[in-house]
Automatic annotation (TrEMBL):
<dbReference type="InterPro" id="IPR017871">
    <property type="entry name" value="ABC_transporter-like_CS"/>
</dbReference>
<feature type="coiled-coil region">
    <location>
        <begin position="547"/>
        <end position="595"/>
    </location>
</feature>
<dbReference type="GO" id="GO:0016887">
    <property type="term" value="F:ATP hydrolysis activity"/>
</dbReference>
<keyword id="KW-0820">tRNA-binding</keyword>
<dbReference type="Pfam" id="PF12848">
    <property type="entry name" value="ABC_tran_Xtn"/>
</dbReference>
<keyword id="KW-0810">Translation regulation</keyword>
<keyword id="KW-0963">Cytoplasm</keyword>
<comment type="similarity">
    <text>Belongs to the ABC transporter superfamily. ABCF family. Translational throttle EttA subfamily.</text>
</comment>
<keyword id="KW-0694">RNA-binding</keyword>
<dbReference type="GO" id="GO:0019843">
    <property type="term" value="F:rRNA binding"/>
</dbReference>
<dbReference type="GO" id="GO:0000049">
    <property type="term" value="F:tRNA binding"/>
</dbReference>
<dbReference type="InterPro" id="IPR032781">
    <property type="entry name" value="ABC_tran_Xtn"/>
</dbReference>
<keyword id="KW-0175">Coiled coil</keyword>
<keyword id="KW-0547">Nucleotide-binding</keyword>
<dbReference type="InterPro" id="IPR032524">
    <property type="entry name" value="ABC_tran_C"/>
</dbReference>
<dbReference type="GO" id="GO:0005524">
    <property type="term" value="F:ATP binding"/>
</dbReference>
<feature type="domain" description="ABC transporter">
    <location>
        <begin position="4"/>
        <end position="247"/>
    </location>
</feature>
Amino acid sequence: MNYLSVENLTHHWGDIQLFDNLTFGVSEGQKIGLIARNGTGKTTLLNILAGVLPNESGQVTYRKGVSVGYLQQLPVLNNDHTVMEEIFASDNPQVIAIKAYEKALSEENHDELGILIEELDKLNAWDYESQVKLILSQLKITNFNQQIGQLSGGQKKRVALANLLINEPQFLILDEPTNHLDLEMIEWLEAYLERSRCTLMMVTHDRYFLDRVCNEIMELADQTIYNYKGNYQNFLEKREERIQTQNAQVDKAKNLLKKEQEWMNRMPQARATKAKYRIDAFYDLKKKADSGTTEQHLELNIQSARLGKKIIECHHVNKAFGNLKILNDFSYKFAQGEKVGIIGKNGTGKTTFLNIITGALEPDSGHLEKGETVVVGHYRQSGMDIDPTKRVLDVISDISEHITLGSGNTMSPAQFLRYFLFPNEMHHVLVEKISGGEKKRLYLMTVLMKNPNFLILDEPTNDLDIFTLSLLEEYLLSFKGCVIIVSHDRYFMDRIVDHLFVFKGEGKIKDFPGNYSAYHEYKLGQEKEQKKLEKVQKEPVKPFPVKEKVRKLTFKEKKEMEKLEKEIEQLNTEKETLENELNSGNLNAEALIEKAKRLSTIIKLVDENEMRWLELSEIEG
């Protein structure tokens, strides 16, 4: 069943055409990820589909009766409402029935109450409020009476997301739904959308989220739409094939065009009417030769300053805000080439920690030592604070007129902007006119052009397109200095970091030897063990049975017990070796993951063998 039909949709941004005659459809049950470079019109397209922006030309048609919900990057909410008032300010039939029931109850309108009780039964609305609170709590919204105007931008986005999920529209349109969610929330939302039977179109930079939720990818490129069935990896492969095919066709057209251009130049004017078909074919060919993909490759080969042996050392650092502990006796020495990921729930002090490392915030006690050669580049989650009326070119030229590359060559601000995929026509555009992703890319430029050798990246993946993220990853993998990353992008973390600082709250920081996926697996194992322990503790104590006959171990069981003792000893030895290797700091990322997985297996085997040994020893006793 077709839910949405888009025909010949065209839209301009000033003099730039974002898309031209877009035509596509979305059917019931499809879960589509929309991918495009920043500034090519992803959010504009979603705004048009949701009716927030009018379409210049073409048609956007929804099937009659289909309910549509839209999560914007910056949701518009009523600041005077409380959280619950905002959630209940909707045209959801359950909400309408609940409000009418409460009104009839307050007015003691018994006739109306009888009708409404039947209506609430029919709508299964009696447990609606508990469902609302469950979704809100999953998104870490617990103060239901707090005013919307008092919430941060991230909290507002989560309220808007909760509102959308609670109202359960048939067609969901989501613009960067994982922004402002911590890892637990992202995994919960991922599982929710994976199970949901809704139809979905979303823009996201989170490649794991994209892979696990969507069954189709649409790419907006060259002012048109390309469709790809399957997951993100399949998209990358098929996209590369498309680009190669397009480029081969364009090269062929260009070679043929040279011959036809010579014929056009020689052709006498008088023969023009007789050769009209060939002249028409020439212009068609010229159009084809000029239609090559606009694919550009950004290579982040920026120079970094030389880094000495002494980098940044933390000695017994403590930090608290009132009763909230952020750091408790934290000591650590950063090493050259080290890439650390920071994860933890919102509010555990990740950004505060970064501000202490950079010197923007003083610790309560303890101290930091910084090497003389250290040049810090800090990419802040809040973005850059610049005059929105400045031109894009001025943002770069105000910092430096000469940018040094890794090769030692220099670039002018205009060249540097082109290098970062800002074409000439955008250089004189005001900052307030560019997209959110383009602002983030511009901000990244201002950080890297200062040639840092100690990079601190606080949520660098928010609002950057997937293509820019892939190239940033390649740059960071070859970066010789130190990197600290705070990110909720699991794919990005898995590719870059060697180990993790896990902020557990109350000033506790766990140094985990591995990337996010290794930690996630480790955490699941820990939770499983905890549940097993709780189950054992909850089981009622059984009365001691009266033995009618004492049973002895069989010969086979005695041999099994001896074998188990040897195996347990060998496994514990291997466990100790693995733990020492993981804590040594000498393993590369691949080895760390492999060793962490093996350790998880060993722990499980030891538990199983010890349990069986105990069973046998009870018989023997």
